[in-house]
């Protein structure tokens, strides 16, 4: 068995799968492009563990379920819808990777793991939904939806319109972590914790699904800890994290420590629900795994990350001071 140089958990953001066109064909085309970037890691000898989001897809699926539901053919609950999107996106991703690996004459197996992620039933997130799912609505549309569905919550999303939000508890464990570790040990590329993982709570000796969508950045962080990854790479739409983002004095962060990022969080530099969870996941990973590093960059920048280390690289404070001494 070949020893892989680095173990890397890669979390794929929304634009890796879905931009505007929600058809299966368009999402598969986007994932084929994504696979071409990811295979660069494999060509370099890295062991990948891939995770992905599902916010738009799971919201769309709930709407499809509700539209066709009857007493005999009821709509599925949210935990099951998350599992369904893990399956569909995992199938697309696996198929795209298989194609690119074959084109590159690389003999590497890929396997999607339906992953359950444990959350606490007491997580305060259950009382306060924050995770946007599905499509955007206008103000008029959302007023109609609020009247039709008083049990659902809709909020304005960063000036881009209104979206349904659902509870997003923090992951406390990944039930299939040992399966993922076994796949990694066999040089297989696992696709796991898709859509943040199916949210489950422990009830005695069993796990029961719950109505939530876990943030895939936090679930990927938890998985990265449990597989003892060297790197957690969060791929999103920007090449770097910035301070004063979108302001004339915007500053790109290249190498940054946990303390520096915590200062920027206190200054409110990172938008809630977009960059903040990525920064928090990166901090958590390097705090719990000080030899590891977290990276936030874009898919398009993967080549430059691999060749020159471009992107925002987050290290534990003591690693930075050791680097400064050498
Ligand atoms: N300080 C910041 N630096 C960089 N990007 C930021 C910052 N604050 C907010 N953002 C926005 O956060 C986005 C990433 O969040 P989001 O789109 O939710 O991620 P995902 O790729 O997981 O779907 C970036 O594309 C950018 O528009
Ligand atoms: N589950 C999740 O975090 O999905 P998105 O990244 O698509 O919001």
UniProtKB/TrEMBL annotation:
<dbReference type="InterPro" id="IPR001048">
    <property type="entry name" value="Asp/Glu/Uridylate_kinase"/>
</dbReference>
<keyword id="KW-0056">Arginine metabolism</keyword>
<dbReference type="GO" id="GO:0019546">
    <property type="term" value="P:L-arginine deiminase pathway"/>
</dbReference>
<dbReference type="Pfam" id="PF00696">
    <property type="entry name" value="AA_kinase"/>
</dbReference>
<keyword id="KW-0808">Transferase</keyword>
<keyword id="KW-0418">Kinase</keyword>
<comment type="pathway">
    <text>Metabolic intermediate metabolism; carbamoyl phosphate degradation; CO(2) and NH(3) from carbamoyl phosphate: step 1/1.</text>
</comment>
<dbReference type="GO" id="GO:0005829">
    <property type="term" value="C:cytosol"/>
</dbReference>
<dbReference type="GO" id="GO:0008804">
    <property type="term" value="F:carbamate kinase activity"/>
</dbReference>
<protein>
    <recommendedName>
        <fullName>Carbamate kinase</fullName>
    </recommendedName>
</protein>
<comment type="similarity">
    <text>Belongs to the carbamate kinase family.</text>
</comment>
<dbReference type="InterPro" id="IPR003964">
    <property type="entry name" value="Carb_kinase"/>
</dbReference>
<dbReference type="InterPro" id="IPR036393">
    <property type="entry name" value="AceGlu_kinase-like_sf"/>
</dbReference>
<feature type="domain" description="Aspartate/glutamate/uridylate kinase">
    <location>
        <begin position="7"/>
        <end position="289"/>
    </location>
</feature>
């Amino acid at each position: 068995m070949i020893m892989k140089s680095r173990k890397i958990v890669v979390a794929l953001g929304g634009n890796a799968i879905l931009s505007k066109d929600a058809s299966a064909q368009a999402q598969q085309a986007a994932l084929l492009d994504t696979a071409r970037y990811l295979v660069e890691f494999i060509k370099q000898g890295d062991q990948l563990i891939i995770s992905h989001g599902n916010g738009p897809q799971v919201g769309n699926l709930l709407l499809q379920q509700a539209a066709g539901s009857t007493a005999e053919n009821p709509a599925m609950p949210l935990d099951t819808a998350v599992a369904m999107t893990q399956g569909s996106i995992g199938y697309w991703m696996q198929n795209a990777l298989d194609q690119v690996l074959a084109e590159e004459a690389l003999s590497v197996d890929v396997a999607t793991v339906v992953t359950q992620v444990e959350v606490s039933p007491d997580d305060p997130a259950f009382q306060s939904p924050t995770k946007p799912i599905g499509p955007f609505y206008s103000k008029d549309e959302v007023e109609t939806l609020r009247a039709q569905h008083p049990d659902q919550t809709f909020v304005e999303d960063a000036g881009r319109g209104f979206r349904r939000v659902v509870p997003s508890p923090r992951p406390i464990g990944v039930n299939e972590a040992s399966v993922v570790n076994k796949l990694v040990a066999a040089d297989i590329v696992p696709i796991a914790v898709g859509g943040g993982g199916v949210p489950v709570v422990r009830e005695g000796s069993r796990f029961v699904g719950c109505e939530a969508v876990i943030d895939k950045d936090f679930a990927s962080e938890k998985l990265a800890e449990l597989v003892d990854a060297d790197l957690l790479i969060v791929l999103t739409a920007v090449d770097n994290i910035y301070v004063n983002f979108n302001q004339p004095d915007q500053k790109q962060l290249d190498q940054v420590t946990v303390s520096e990022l915590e200062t920027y969080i206190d200054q409110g530099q990172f938008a809630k629900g977009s960059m903040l969870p990525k920064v928090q996941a990166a901090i958590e990973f390097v705090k719990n795994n000080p030899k590891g590093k977290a990276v936030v960059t874009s898919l398009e920048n993967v080549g430059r990350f691999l060749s020159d280390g471009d992107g925002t690289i987050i290290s534990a404070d003591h690693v930075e001071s050791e680097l400064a001494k050498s």
